[in-house]
């Protein structure tokens, strides 16, 4: 799948806007804007990870929040052990997510449809209750980080702007990686397996291996989001991997447009901004948010990305 010029321009504009946001926040003297934007970037990474398997592999995972939790707890556990380097935190998160995704994915991918959704949810809930049982890390109450991850041996990420730009660099890098994957032969086989697995097997490809590989890659990407969320909040709890969180990720992808990587990033951004703005208006903001989501789904099957594409 080629990255068409229109989408390339849209990506350039979106990431340029992200890059300029700290300057805007400084001009407005609103430091909270940086905090919210960092959270948005972290969830954009998670939505991007989910869209890789949902939009291109047809795999509706309702347990991807488990990888957010694995990434977050990698920070908490290593931090408690005195290991504070961000690179090591990311490495531990990726390795932990890869092992979990490889084992659970190998089992889950032997099912299809609603059964795949339910088994991914079941594995995520198993991970959730496992971390609830870890009394050394606060159990259900979670644990507060002593400090954020260090970068190059220095506490650079204690500065909110530095943390924001670190999250932005990770999002940009993972977005380009996801685009490269979907444009490659691997991506085309993954899409073919979604459309017609029988035909793919007939021409010599094993859908299972491609889907499992994509599932592991997606889980590792989501774990990176967990690392950034832990640093942004300076707090980790099993709530990071609650099934509600998985549902929120699915909503973000649907909101932006399934099968559109940039749409996943935009969907996470707009969904979280709507959440912030509607919460100011009323305590019953989920009703308004749900209404907006229904309208988007009814009038644009491809989410916001499809809505804007038809008007371009």
From TrEMBL:
It is a multi-pass membrane protein. Keywords: Cell membrane, Membrane, Transmembrane, Transmembrane helix. InterPro entries: ABC_transp_permease (IPR001851), LivM-like (IPR043428). It comes from Paracoccus marinaquae. This is Branched-chain amino acid ABC transporter permease. Pfam families: BPD_transp_2. Its main location: membrane. It is found in: Cell membrane. The chain crosses the membrane at residues 36-58, 65-82, 88-107, 114-137, 162-181, 208-229, 249-274, 286-308.
